[in-house]
Write a structure and sequence with these properties.
Distance between the termini: 68 Å
GO molecular function: DNA binding
CATH class of the largest domain: Mainly Alpha
CATH architecture of the largest domain: Orthogonal Bundle
Protein name: Integrase
Keywords: DNA integration, DNA recombination, DNA-binding
Strand content: under 5%
Organism: Micromonospora endolithica
CATH topology of the largest domain: hpI Integrase, Chain A
InterPro entries: CB (IPR044068), DNA_brk_join_enz (IPR011010), Integrase-like_cat_sf (IPR013762), Integrase_catalytic (IPR002104), Integrase_recombinase_N (IPR010998), Integrase_SAM-like_N (IPR004107), Tyrosine_recombinase_XerCD (IPR050090)
Number of helices: 13
Structural class: mainly alpha
Number of strands: 3
Length: 334
């Protein structure tokens, strides 16, 4: 047995998190892993005889009995999805320790876990809410210190018409938009390292072109070089996680629809609205899952390929494009 068996669990947690660097996880993901590991480890330390502070907890003290007791306390005040996520994180942690020769085996199979519930869609509530949101944001608001409706509409439209996650929006570059007229697309760096291509319909393409033109006028043509981040703040700096969340929240407030946004969804509600509208307008489950960048239809199903023509037809069925067309025709978005 490796002599690290007496090493602090806290130190091994940091080694495990460092080992994940090659996977390029988001800071949000790493923070969630660290939180789940340290909370359960702290509870496990309290279950030892005698109870120990976390920094004094050695890995050999993490017996199945101690871990079961810790997870029972952890689960008492948390949803099944949170417990399942923590269990999976600890399972990965012990797999790392086994591979590194720190422990002889993984005790997690002896620790019960709830079945992972299928996530429930959380689209914006109200049949006219996306239209109301886009129309309100397209109008310049004199109360704003530095209004930029072209940028704000572009952010909302990418989420509503391409179904992008927050991390995917932040990763976009100007060069992510490509293809000739009629076959435009956006190349997305998807979750789990799975890239995908989402068709861009003419209305969304015009909204994005209007945004980039406005950006060039604000900062200079150099600000829209191919390698530049696609989405920037009002100073021309790349949008970051907090800034993008604040932008979307402010759009909700300006449109007066904050009460129609499901709790905890925020920007994700736009992605779920994209998927819900596709389903309502006739797209198949396979097309929707492919466009959203999911690896499977459900946890037990295999990945279903669809052709580029089917993907474009599915995106075209999203009636939000007609809203964008109305804004463009009315001159609200130049």
């Amino acid at each position: 047995m490796h002599d690290k068996q007496d090493e602090s669990v806290g130190g091994l947690i940091e080694e495990f998190l460092t080992s994940l660097a090659t996977r390029k996880p988001s800071p949000h993901t790493v923070a969630a892993y660290r939180r789940d590991l340290r909370i359960v480890a702290g509870l496990a330390a309290e279950e030892t005889t005698p109870p120990l502070p976390l920094d004094a907890l050695a890995v050999h003290a993490l017996s199945p009995r101690v871990l079961r007791a810790a997870f029972a306390r952890f689960a008492a005040t948390r949803a099944a999805a949170s417990v399942h996520r923590a269990w999976s994180t600890w399972n990965s942690f012990f797999s790392f320790l086994v591979a590194d020769g720190v422990v002889a085996g993984n005790p997690m199979p002896a620790v019960g876990r709830p079945r992972a519930p299928l996530p429930q869609p959380k689209p914006l509530r109200g049949a006219d809410t996306p239209e109301r949101l886009l129309a309100a944001v397209a109008r310049e608001d004199g109360r704003q210190r530095d209004p930029w409706p072209e940028r704000d509409v572009a952010v909302l439209a990418l989420a509503l018409c391409a179904g992008l996650r927050l991390s995917e929006l932040l990763a976009l570059r100007v060069s992510s938009l490509g293809g000739r007229a009629g076959e435009r697309r956006v190349e997305v760096a998807g979750k789990g390292g799975r890239p995908r291509v989402v068709p861009v319909e003419p209305e969304l393409d015009r909204v994005l072109a209007s945004y980039l033109d406005s950006r060039a006028r604000r900062f200079s043509a150099r600000s829209v070089r191919p390698a530049s981040p696609l989405l920037v703040d009002r100073r021309g700096e790349p949008l970051r996680r907090g800034g993008l969340q604040y932008l979307v929240d402010s759009c909700y407030r300006r449109a007066g629809i904050s009460d129609r946004v499901p709790a905890g969804a925020r920007l994700h509600a736009l992605r779920h609205t994209f998927a819900t509208r596709l389903a309502e307008d006739g797209a198949s489950a396979a097309e929707i899952m492919r466009l959203l960048g999911h690896a499977s239809l459900a946890s037990s199903q295999t990945y279903i390929e669809v052709t580029a023509v089917q993907q474009r037809a599915a995106v075209r069925s999203n009636r939000t494009h007609r809203v964008l067309a109305g804004l463009l025709g009315a001159g609200q978005v130049s």
